[in-house]
Each structure stands twice: as structure tokens, then as C-alpha cells.
Design a protein that fits this description.
The protein is of the alpha+beta class. Helix content is 26%, strand content 22%. The longest helix has 17 residues. Bound molecules: flavin-adenine dinucleotide. The site of flavin-adenine dinucleotide has 47 residues, from helix 1, helix 2, strand 3, strand 7 and strand 17. The site of flavin-adenine dinucleotide (FAD) has 47 residues, from helix 1, helix 2, strand 3, strand 7 and strand 17.
């Protein structure tokens, strides 16, 4: 095994932070401000660096009532689980709540420009649903990250782009003592061993861009995501090698998103023309400007399209054991002339079509129509034929939908009456959808001190994790802003505990 014994150390620091998204930035700033020497490793080049954090909308949770938040999280953690076996250990939840209650003040103290945008949680009706505040970094996730980059740059933090952590290094007792990294700066990659005399903090995100890991761990396949292209599960594999237990590997914060063969990322669709993807944070919803439905690959509706933005992807996971397929993968976003003429069909507030502009979606959707990303039919039957779908099923689905709109009620799926807008203005259109969108949640299990645990619940000395690399959220994600909130909370928890570690023995013992 690579990771036992002494190494030839090429460099020494006190804390290595792996990954420069929000959790990495928060951990590095906190550890530095507590007096530690920090080396922050980022595998991407600075010029093209994108992360889920910088592609995000910039909404982060802050908790307004700790007691009620504890009730809410306890309720969420038992859905699809058991009271005695919740998705997440109570100690980790408690730490998350305690620190998340300070998130907004922490950001403001740092000088961040934030605004309260909502108090609407993802699952209203559960106990404690009035305990959360959704704050937004003014602008978007990219603005937020630019602010964080400035904060890091104003400190003596050693930031290394194009430097990928490849393995964790341990001593003979199993303590993590450093990392083997591939330094690709200057063109010629070279492997070096960096010793961390205090600890290593994994902030390397999830496994949205690893097809192999998604196939093995997620509930449905394929899934596509609209976040950081560096998130290939590296931190998870490195933690596994040194004995980490994994949790939440089959859990995601995801809905349905578009994925086109000639573009490398998922794209969030603005289904209704409301600006946000459906039902994100709008509390003042008026009648939709244009109608839409989501159907399976045969043309049947299967859920209310008033999507739970961080949970709806689970609805795609039904596998037909006779046909040997997932009938809901792909699904289709179906709309008519009113929607295509209303506004761009991609969401412009986050993801690759957002401020990062990894893809510039045309204002009038014509470029994407020409590319075949949007499929057209002059009649519903023609659209169905163009989608290789039985025309009679889609025709029947849309006729039923239009009757529901006329009657003002959707008895089969309970769609909000404000969304009952008919599909009756040709041409008709479709965009192919896949389960996906934001992010995976699984990774190394951690405790309330952000220490990575082995399968017996014992901390692996010298190893911490924060953010999406082993998120505290299980099946259900509490509310918009949960992930960035977790980066701010656990980035601080990890750093505060990591700086307390001192690995005196290795200072003498290394070769
Ligand atoms: C379009 C979109 C919108 C979203 N909007 C929101 C929102 O508004 N609010 C919210 O709470 N959540 C949102 N999310 C989710 C949220 O953005 C992520 O969960 C969160 O940003 C993850 O942060 P992180 O620090 O854990 O990882 P990331 O921000 O993904 O950063 C991980 C970094 O680690 C680097 N890395 C990976 N492996 C290595 C390695 N081996 N060596 C060195 N570096 C490595 C990567 O290159 C990357 O830079 C959104 C997600 C998407 C995709």
C-alpha cells in the first residue's frame, strides 16, 4: 500500500486544504486567521477555474432558530430511514446547526455583501419549517467566489493552481501526515510529497463528473450535473484508501436538467419563463406566462412539475424490470410557441449558462433550435414522431392537460392552479431532460468536528472534510442554500479543529 511509512518530504506546511471552492476558501481563511500556515491545492488552472461554488446561484442558509432547526433536521433525517438509524448522526447535525446559525454574521464580518431572499424551506409542513433563512451573495456564486478569492489573496495563504492532490500519505499509525501531489505548473508535471504537520482538509467536492462513480453509487443512470468540472471524486477515493467510511453515496441534491451530446455539462432549464428554475425561491408566484409539462420517454406525465428543486431527480429512478430500462430517462420538457417566444429557455442565473458564460444561450432560442437541442413539431403528433415517441400517447397527454387547464384542476398530479396554462399554440417543442442539476452529496463520513471517520466510527487522525465531499445531508436537502451554507459552516469547523492538531513526531521522524 502506498500510504504507509515515512516519505521523502519535498515541502512542509501545517495545513493542506485540497480544493478551492467555497469550503476550501473558508477552511483556508479560518485556519490562516487562527495562526496556521496553509497550503491550498487546486487542480485546475487559474484562468479556467470553475467550481460548483462559482457556478452556483450564491444562496446560503443561515439558521434563525436553533431549536426549531433541530426539529426540522430530525424530521428530514428520518424520511426513508428509521428513528434509530437516521441518515446523519445527531452530533454532525448539531454541529452543522450551531455553525450554520452564524453563517450570515460570518459572511458579513468578512465584508461580504449579502441579502435575505427567502425563508421558504424545501419541505414546508415538517416540524421546524420556520427555522431557516436563505441569504444570497449579491450577484451570484461567481461574485461570491471572486470575493472569497480576494479574501484569500489578501492573506499569506499559499495557493497552488494546477496542483492536484493524488494520494494521502500516512505514518505507521495511520495518521494522515501529508499528500502526494502532481504539480503541473510550468508545463512539466512533477510529483512531490508535501508534509502537513497539523492536518489535511478535503474540500474537493463531489463526484458529479465521474461516470464510473455515478454508475456505481447513484440510484439512476445517467445523471448529469451543471457544476464544477473538477469534481471527479478524487477526495473520496483518497479518503477510502486511508480507511474512511462513506455515507450518503446514493443521495443527491438534484432535479432534472438538460444535457446535449455536443456540450460537456448539464444545463439548467428555465421551465416556466420565471427566471429561476421552477419553484426555487419564488413565494409571490403569479400565473405562469406559458404552460409546460414534463413527460417520460413514452409521452406520459408522472409527477407534478412544480418541482422540488433539490429532490425531484429521485422521481426518475423507477426501473422497469421487464423492459430493462428507466422509462423516465430521458424525460422531456414539453412547451408551445408562447414559451419559446417568452425568454431564453436556459437559466441565466447559475450553471454554465450563468455568469461564467461557459455557454452563451441565444436570447431568442433560435441557435439552440438550429442545433437540434430544442426539437420542434407543427403538431403534437409531429413533435412526438420527432422524439421517437408514440404519437397517440403524447397527443392524449396534452389533450388531458388542456382539459385540466380549462377545469382549473389537475386531479392526477395536483399541479398548482397558477401553473395550469394550456399547450395549444403551435408549434410545439421539447427539450430532453435527465435527472441531475446541482450536486452529489456522498463522500467520507465525518463527525461534528469534521474529522473523517473509519467504518468503526473512529476519527482518522489528521484528516478532515468539508463541503460537498461527504455532505452532512442525506436523502433530503433542507432548503436552497444548504450546500453553500454547509461549506461556510464545515469549512470553519474543519479548520478550527485542524489547527489544534500538532504532529510533533513526524517533524522529527520524516526522512
Ligand atoms: C448550477 C448550480 C447552482 C447551485 N446553486 C447553489 C446555491 O445557490 N446554493 C447552494 O447552497 N448550493 C448551490 N449549488 C450547490 C453548491 O454550489 C455546491 O454543493 C458547493 O458549491 C460545493 O462546494 P465545495 O467547496 O464542496 O466544492 P466545489 O465548489 O465544487 O470545489 C471543489 C474544488 O476542488 C477541486 N479539486 C477536486 N479534486 C481535486 C484534487 N485532487 N486536487 C486539487 N483540487 C481538487 C475542484 O477542481 C474544485 O475547484 C449549486 C450547484 C450548481 C451546479
Amino acid at each position: 500500500m502506498l500510504t504507509q511509512g515515512n516519505y521523502r518530504w519535498d515541502e512542509t506546511t501545517e495545513i493542506i486544504v485540497i480544493g478551492y471552492g467555497l469550503s476550501g476558501a473558508v477552511a483556508a481563511i479560518t485556519a490562516h486567521d487562527l495562526g496556521a500556515r496553509v497550503t491550498l491545492l487546486e487542480k485546475q488552472p487559474a484562468e479556467t477555474h470553475n467550481t460548483s461554488s462559482s457556478l452556483a446561484m450564491g444562496v446560503f442558509l443561515s439558521i434563525s432558530n436553533v431549536k426549531r432547526a433541530t426539529e426540522y433536521m430530525a424530521a428530514l433525517n428520518q424520511v426513508g430511514s428509521y428513528p434509530e438509524l437516521p441518515w446523519t448522526d445527531a452530533e454532525a447535525v448539531k454541529a452543522w446547526i450551531t455553525y450554520t446559525a452564524q453563517n450570515k454574521d460570518w459572511m458579513v464580518r468578512l465584508g461580504g455583501n449579502v441579502k435575505l431572499v427567502s425563508t421558504l424551506v424545501e419541505f414546508p409542513g415538517l416540524p421546524g419549517d420556520d427555522s431557516m433563512e436563505l441569504w444570497k451573495y449579491q450577484g451570484n456564486g461567481l461574485r461570491m467566489m471572486k470575493f472569497m478569492y480576494e479574501q484569500v489573496a489578501s492573506r499569506r495563504i499559499d495557493v497552488r493552481y494546477q496542483t492536484s492532490a493524488v494520494r494521502l500519505l500516512t505514518d505507521n499509525t495511520g495518521r494522515v501526515t501529508g499528500a502526494k501531489v502532481l504539480d503541473s505548473r510550468g508545463g512539466r508535471p512533477r510529483e512531490i510529497n508535501i508534509r502537513a504537520t497539523r492536518a489535511v482538509v478535503l474540500c474537493s467536492g463531489g463526484f458529479e463528473e465521474s461516470e464510473a462513480m455515478k454508475l456505481q453509487y447513484l440510484r439512476v443512470n445517467p445523471m448529469y450535473f451543471a457544476g464544477g468540472t473538477g469534481n471527479t471524486g478524487d477526495g473520496i477515493r483518497m479518503a477510502q484508501e486511508v480507511g474512511a467510511d462513506l455515507w450518503h453515496m446514493n443521495c443527491v441534491s438534484a432535479r432534472l436538467c438538460a444535457k446535449f451530446p455536443d456540450f460537456y455539462m448539464g444545463i439548467f432549464i428555465d421551465f416556466s419563463g420565471g427566471g429561476w428554475s421552477q419553484n426555487t425561491m419564488k413565494t409571490d408566484k403569479g400565473k405562469l406566462p406559458a404552460g409546460f409539462i414534463i413527460v417520460d420517454k413514452y409521452g406520459r406525465r408522472y409527477m407534478t412539475e412544480e418541482l422540488k428543486p433539490h429532490t425531484a431527480s429521485y422521481e426518475c429512478g423507477w426501473f422497469d424490470s421487464y423492459k430493462l430500462e428507466y422509462p423516465r430517462v430521458p424525460s422531456y420538457h414539453i412547451f408551445d410557441r408562447r414559451r419559446i417566444e417568452y425568454s431564453p429557455l436556459a437559466q441565466l442565473a447559475s450553471g454554465p449558462t450563468g455568469p461564467h458564460r461557459l455557454y452563451t444561450w441565444s436570447r431568442d432560442n433560435t441557435v439552440e433550435l438550429r442545433k437540434g437541442w430544442i426539437v420542434q413539431g407543427d403538431t403534437v403528433a409531429e413533435l412526438a414522431a420527432n422524439l421517437n415517441m408514440p404519437p397517440e400517447i403524447l397527443t392524449d397527454t396534452i389533450a388531458t392537460w388542456n382539459k385540466c387547464c380549462q377545469a382549473g384542476s389537475d386531479p392526477d398530479f395536483g399541479r398548482n392552479p397558477l401553473e395550469l396554462v394550456p399547450l395549444d399554440e403551435p408549434p410545439f417543442y421539447a427539450i430532453k431532460l435527465f435527472p441531475g442539476g446541482s450536486n452529489t452529496l456522498g463522500g467520507p463520513r465525518r463527525n461534528g468536528r469534521a474529522q473523517v471517520l473509519n467504518p468503526f466510527g473512529e476519527p482518522i487522525p489528521g484528516l478532515y472534510a468539508a463541503g460537498e465531499c461527504g455532505s452532512v445531508f442525506g436523502l433530503l436537502y433542507p432548503a436552497g442554500g444548504g450546500n453553500l451554507g454547509e461549506c461556510i459552516a464545515f469549512g470553519r469547523i474543519a479548520a478550527e479543529n485542524a489547527v489544534k492538531e500538532g504532529y510533533k513526531k513526524s517533524l522529527k521522524g520524516g526522512k
